[in-house]
């Protein structure tokens, strides 16, 4: 029995030792495997990071321009787009004046500014945040059309393209010195019946959209324009060009344009038969399609007979309602009076079926009377189909007064202490001629 027990004990001990050995082996094996796996992962990660870094370097290389712009010189005139002022002697001043006379901008100063000068990066955030795969982008031809351009401004533009455009994408730079009509040949090129400039942007937009094309807005696309003190060429008749575009493309909607620009009705816009044939040949859509599909958010005026045009005061009969908005702030002024001129524009108003007094020669503004105030301001009109705020509701009464229910007052004309005509809200009195008004075309 003892022997059996001893044998059994040996067997048990043997199994225990073998088990411990197996467990130890497995632990060691797992440790080695884990270490090997981690080593492989580290190796793979390092190789991936190296490849990624190399890829980034390649992308960076692909974005390099053809020429590298020299470092900025803070002492150079015009650097970073800052205004430059030169100390000139009498002979130099004469040369400067001659350049301004010829080009209408100071080309003498422009000639002193480096062709490689740096400017501030004023791109929109949406543009700066964009990334591109340069390998998948097509090459580009840059077309620069110019007319009576000074050499330094033209060369600076060319160098800007060469020093900022990725070399792999820049195929060529094409200079056109003929007020180019080479683009959009299929769509009819530039309307040669238009004079110099003015209105061609509208004509081209209507034509592209109505004839099957599209105009795309890109956050990296922007235009800088230098407005000279005077044009180096004869100013065009803007109304003539715009009337020509309206006659060709706007169909019956052209009446809204003429209502707001009465002198345009008398303009001689030339022969448009070729443009009409072009529109028919291309099977272009009508202007109603354009409004419904391209610009559905645009408010189309009602222009009801007798309820649009200039609003003349019967108290100060030489004066009409007038609104002169400051630049970049369309609602930043008050309604006032000014001598009636019959030109539409800032004296064109429309009374709508929603009882709004709309000023919409440029943008859709509605006359309002702020709470507890006597002046008449302007605010952006509500969207079509939206509720109409109480303070922009008006009533043109049969007695000739213009009543504002929310303030319970009427529009009244008066003269300031300086003798200038103006308007304010007063308690209604139909016997006061300063509170009587009429629409006239």
Walk me through this protein's architecture:
The protein is an alpha+beta fold and 441 residues long. 32% of the residues lie in helices and 14% in strands. The protein is built from 10 helices and 14 strands. It has helices at 2-62, 90-103, 107-110, 125-128, 151-164, 200-210, 238-249, 254-260, 273-281, 287-293; strands at 140-145, 170-176, 308-313, 319-322, 336-339, 349-351, 357-359, 365-368, 377-380, 395-396, 402-404, 409-415, 421-426, 437-440. Strands 9-8-7-6-3-14 form a 6-stranded antiparallel β-sheet, with no helix packed on it. It has a 4-stranded antiparallel β-sheet with strand order 10-11-12-13, with no helix packed on it. It is globular, with a radius of gyration of 37 Å.
Please outline the helices and strands.
Elements: H1 2-62, H2 90-103, H3 107-110, H4 125-128, E1 140-145, H5 151-164, E2 170-176, H6 200-210, H7 238-249, H8 254-260, H9 273-281, H10 287-293, E3 308-313, E4 319-322, E5 336-339, E6 349-351, E7 357-359, E8 365-368, E9 377-380, E10 395-396, E11 402-404, E12 409-415, E13 421-426, E14 437-440
Parallel strand pairs: 1-2
Antiparallel strand pairs: 3-6, 3-14, 4-5, 6-7, 7-8, 8-9, 10-11, 11-12, 12-13
Helix pairs in contact: 6-7
């Amino acid at each position: 029995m003892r022997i059996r027990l001893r044998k059994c004990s040996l067997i048990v001990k043997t199994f225990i030792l073998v088990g411990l050995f197996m467990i130890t082996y497995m632990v060691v094996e797992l440790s080695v495997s884990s270490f090997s796996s981690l080593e492989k992962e580290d190796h793979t990660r390092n190789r991936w990071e190296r490849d990624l870094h190399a890829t980034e370097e390649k992308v960076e290389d692909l974005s390099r321009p053809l020429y590298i712009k020299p470092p900025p010189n803070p002492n150079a005139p015009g650097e970073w787009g800052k205004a430059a002022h030169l100390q000139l002697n009498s002979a130099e001043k004469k040369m400067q004046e001659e350049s301004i006379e010829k080009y209408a901008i100071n080309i003498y100063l422009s000639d002193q500014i480096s062709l490689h000068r740096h400017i501030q990066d004023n791109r929109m955030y949406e543009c700066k945040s964009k990334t591109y795969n340069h390998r998948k982008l097509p090459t580009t031809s840059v077309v620069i059309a110019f007319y009576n351009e000074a050499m330094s401004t033209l060369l600076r533009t060319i160098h800007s393209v060469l020093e900022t455009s990725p070399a792999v994408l820049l195929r060529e730079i094409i200079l056109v010195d003929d007020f180019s009509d080479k683009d959009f040949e299929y769509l009819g090129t530039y309307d040669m019946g238009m004079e110099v400039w003015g209105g061609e942007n509208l004509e081209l937009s209507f034509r592209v959209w109505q004839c099957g094309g599209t105009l795309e807005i890109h956050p990296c696309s922007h235009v800088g324009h230098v407005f000279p003190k005077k044009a180096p060429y004869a100013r065009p008749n803007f109304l003539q060009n715009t009337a020509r575009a309206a006659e060709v493309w706007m169909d019956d909607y052209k009446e809204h344009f003429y209502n707001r620009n009465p002198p345009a009705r008398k303009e001689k816009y030339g022969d448009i038969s070729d443009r009409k044939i072009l529109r028919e040949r291309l099977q272009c859509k009508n202007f109603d399609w354009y409004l419904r599909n391209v610009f559905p958010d645009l408010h189309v005026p009602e222009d009801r007979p007798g309820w649009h045009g200039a609003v003349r005061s019967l108290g100060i009969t030489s004066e009409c309602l007038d609104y002169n908005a400051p630049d970049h702030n369309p609602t930043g002024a008050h309604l006032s009076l000014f001598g009636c001129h019959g030109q539409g524009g800032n004296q064109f108003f429309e009374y709508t079926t929603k009882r709004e007094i709309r000023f919409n020669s440029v943008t859709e503004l509605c006359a309002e009377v702020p709470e507890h105030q006597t002046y008449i301001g302007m605010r952006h009109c509500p969207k079509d189909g939206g509720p109409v705020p109480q303070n922009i509701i008006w009533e043109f009464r049969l007695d000739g007064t213009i009543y504002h229910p929310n303030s319970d007052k009427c529009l009244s004309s008066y003269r300031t202490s300086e003798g200038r005509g103006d308007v304010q809200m007063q308690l209604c009195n139909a016997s006061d001629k300063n509170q009587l008004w009429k629409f006239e075309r």
